[in-house]
Amino acid sequence: MFDSKDNQYAVSIDLKGKPLSVDELVLKHSRLKYFYKSNLSFILAIFVLGAAVTYRAIMLDYDKEHELFNISLYVGLWFGLFTGVMIDGDARRKFQMVVVGITISASSGLFASMLVMLMLGQATVWITSVNILASALACMWVLTRYDEVLKGIESIHYVDQKQFSYIQKASSHFEELYTFSEKIIAENRLPLTCEYWAYRDWVKAKAALNKP
Asked: CA-CA-CA-CA torsion for 190, 193, 195, 198, nearest 10 degrees?
């Protein structure tokens, strides 16, 4: 995570301030990539632990009919799909969230429930409750951490042609936006996606103020 002075994954843009320089952009991108890799390592660790403990429990015949195993997979599947549907973003980011949501939800649920099973025996009601709780908490983590990192990385990508055209059009109509666009040009780079978001929000707010 960023520290308390820089605690947002997505870059906040002040249209009256100074745009990010190329050096600042490279630094922020490298930091976000670090957080992204750290989160993936965490997900991989949960997956490995879940698989290992589940395999051990099944080998010891604690889940002979694989009922708990199937329940965990179903819960993980639905929570993962729910995660992908609920987030904002393009199809690629939604797909990433679905895959990660299913992986971490099913794995954390299996790990928690199978570990309790190994410790306490076949306490089905207790284990199923822990499974559902663990899956829900895992998906909360996905929603509040992994998605924020993905959005942060997306926010510092350069704009596509459509977004660039929108920025040019907005800059030609409003002096404040034109001034900020000139500052971006002075930085010797294209506008960022987060800057496009800032332009769009500014224009929407301006239009709302001018409504009769």
From this structure: 160
Confidence label for 3 from pLDDT (cuts 50, 70 and 90): very low
Per-position DSSP letters for 80-120, written without gaps between them: HHHHHHHS-S-HHHHHHHHHHHHHHHHHHHHHHHHHHHHHH
What is the value of pTM for the model shown? Answer: 0.71
Cα(144)–Cα(65) distance, integer angstroms: 35
Tokens representing 83 are 């995660």
Task: For residue 59, give the H/E element and its range.
Answer: helix 22-59
Angle 78-149-203 (CA atoms, 0-180°, nearest 5)?
105
- The whole-angstrom separation of Cα 176 and Cα 168 is 13
Q: What is the C-alpha to C-alpha distance for residues 25 and 33, in angstroms, rounded to an integer?
A: 12
Average pLDDT score over the chain:
81
Q: What is d(CA 82, CA 58) in angstroms, rounded to the nearest whole number?
A: 29
DSSP3 helix / strand / coil % (the chain, rounded to 5)? 75, 0, 25
